[in-house]
Amino acid sequence: MKRTELDGIAIFLAVAEHQGFRSAARSLGLTASAVSQQISSLEKRIGAPLFSRTTRSVGLTEAGQRLLQHAKPAADMFLAGLESARELSEQAGRQPTHKHDPSQHAAAD
Predict the structure, then answer these.
(1) Which pLDDT tens digit goes with each residue over 47-93?
(2) CA separation, residue 24 to residues 27, 30, 81, 102 (Å)
(3) 60 phi/psi in degrees, rounded to 5
(4) Residue 104 or residue 61, greater confidence
(5) What are the φ/ψ torsions at residue 53 (nearest 5 degrees)?
(6) What's the predicted TM-score (pTM) here?
(7) How many separate helices (H) and strands (E) can be counted in the chain?
(8) Which are the contacts of 8, defined by CB distance < 8 A and separation ≥ 6?
(9) Is 53 helix (H, G, I), strand (E, B) or coil?
């Protein structure tokens, strides 16, 4: 998977959740222009509009609904994985489970 395939997904999810570019931008600490540019870039990569935009509202298109159907559960699972890893780190007293031992690498040379 290429990193660029995931570019804009968090922003897409925020716009879908907040049903607006400005409120999504505020929640992400970005400008509305930056959010709009990321969504436009994502739409170009997908080849279809994700949102129907009017002066008063933002709604998901069919392509946007399909993306949301898959992206939201995936994002939730990703965040759960991060939280699980954090909990493990806290339980271990924030000690790394693998310590780097330079002598192991020197012996292999």
Answers:
(1) 999 999 988 889 999 999 999 999 999 999 999 999 999 998 888 77
(2) 5, 8, 24, 46
(3) -80, 140
(4) 61
(5) -115, 130
(6) 0.76
(7) 5, 2
(8) 38, 39, 41, 42, 45
(9) strand
In eight-state DSSP terms, residue 4 is G
Please give the structure tokens belonging to residue 40: 């436009």
Alpha carbon distances (Å) from 39 to 5, 24, 34, 59, 102 = 13, 12, 9, 13, 45
Q: What gap in Å lies between CA 103 and CA 25, rounded to an integer?
A: 49
pLDDT of residue 92: 79
Q: What angle do CA 88, 93, 98 make, to 5 degrees?
A: 70
Mean pLDDT, rounded, of the chain: 87
